[in-house]
Amino acid sequence: MGYKVVVAGATGNVGREMLNILAERQFPVDEIVALASRRSLGTECSFGDKTLKTKDLDTFDFTGWDIALFAIGSDATKKYAPLAAKAGCIVIDNSSLYRYDPDVPLVVPEVNPEAVHDYSKKNIIANPNCSTAQMVVALKPLHDRAKIKRVVVSTYQSVSGAGKDGMDELWNQTKGMYVPGQEVAPSKFTKQIAFNVIPHIDVFMDSGDTKEEWKMVAETKKIVDPSIKVTATCVRVPVFVGHSEAINIETEDFLDEEEARDILREAPGIMVVDKREDGGYTTPVECAGDFATFVSRIRQDVTIENGLNFWCVSDNLRKGAALNAVQIAETLGNRVLKKA
To answer: Is residue 287 flagged as an active site residue?
Structure first.
């Protein structure tokens, strides 16, 4: 016996990836429906060897459905998630709407799987921001061993984090660089993204941080430990898929780089690729399409008493969004619903 599953926003990058991952991981599905806005009604989506035609989100009745994976943005989620939850369907939401709600668990299954039990307060579970998700997977096993006091992270985030429009803008600007008269002005991004980097993701806040940077701080505290101090600088780079992060941690107890490497090798969801030679590390090109969070360049930071540096790379459409949502559904099924 399996589950009746809804994927809302099935025609977007993340929604399509959710369908792919549900099929790849053989999630126990008895029935599945793909939902989209009215303008995308009837669009075909793949689910394994099946083809699904999208149905209208606006008129869909969630009664009798077990789990809904939402990838429709905060505005639409605000309207439809409470309707689904009230109908008894548990919503796993990829937007930022509920991440900071104290009555909604924010879950990364490798880090805080026990939090899924708190879903019942609103019948909603939140998926974290893509840049946070991969980082906390790497932080948690090190925190368990040596207690992390402070994190300094610089991100190098791909344009797919800004959706299809972001990917199209990079593609069109890159082509336009080589064709006189075909230059493409910035639209999705604040400056040219082709052959450039932009230290600005989401809106600026009064503190001078961007909202993306604030998200990494707030979400790490909620998922891992509220006592951890985090400071972030988030940068958009001309990469189609895959977020990279340079992470520095300061721990209460000394942690040798060799022990840290061994801990990360044994940790769930992590692949360590760390050879001190040309190419002995992972880049976004290698991680695209993979489930793992890759960690490389693990080394002591000798400028502080208990410090480590490392490099972290992951497919943001997978671990940063769709994969984590499916893993939440798997955790929910194994720990709470237990139908399959």
So the answer is: no
